[in-house]
Amino acid sequence: MAGSSQSTNMPRLATIFMFVIAIFILFDQTLRNGLGMIVGYGLEPLIGFGGGFPVMSLFLSGMIMTGLTIVIRHFFIDYVEQVKSQKIVAAFNKELRQARMENNTYKMKKLTEQQAKILQKSMSVTSSQLKILPITLIIVIPIFAWLAVFMTQVPSTNFSVPWSFNSDLNGIYVMPSWILLYSLASLPFGQVLMRTLRYFAFKKRLDALKAEGK
């Protein structure tokens, strides 16, 4: 039991540690600039374009970061088990709600006895996702640090959008515009990549089940 508790706490501690580092880098300009400059030695020759195409640099960095984090999650997360766990929890909650509406005390008692086991299974899936969060933060933090430095060094941060012909990438609308543009590029790409990888993961599992049934 002690070993199991320690193994459960390790990813949680690693995640907390990475979040603390992320907060320090986010609010400490010296750390952020230092990390950004180091990462820039690798990224600027690849996607910096000498600062001449900052929008393209944002799009490419978003695709790199999103692609790497999603591919890492793909190899560490069992999508079939994840969906199965979600279905079991949803079915259990539906049965429990129905039992309460019908005031079926016997059924409520039986379901309540099974609740701990259902929640434990759900938590095991969540824990597997938590384990890889520190790894993804190792990718996310340096790229954002580089972008924060990069966007202060480009010759011109003006760009055109449908609602404005002279927008500033460093302008602030709730958050800096370059972060909004970065999200606009990375989120759709991430959804397409994630759904594609899930499709192939499910197809592979179905093909394996069909082969076993022969």
Features of this protein?
214 residues, mainly alpha, two-stranded antiparallel ribbon, 6 helices, 6% strand
Could you characterize what this model shows?
The protein has 214 residues and is mainly alpha-helical. It has one domain. Helix content is 82%, strand content 6%. It is built from six helices and four strands, in the order αααααββββα. It has helices at residues 2-27, 29-48, 54-76, 79-101, 105-150, 177-213, and strands spanning 158-161, 164-168, 172-173, 175-176. The strands form two sheets. A two-stranded antiparallel sheet has the order 1-2. Strand 1 (158-161) and strand 2 form a beta hairpin. Helix 3 packs parallel to helix 6. The longest helix is centred in the middle third of the chain and has 46 residues, at 105-150. It is elongated and about 70 Å long. Mean pLDDT is 80; it is low at 1-8.
Strand content: 5-15%
What number is the mean pLDDT? 80
How many domains would you count in the coordinates? 1
Count of DSSP E strands?
A: 4
Structural class by secondary-structure content: mainly alpha
Net shape: elongated
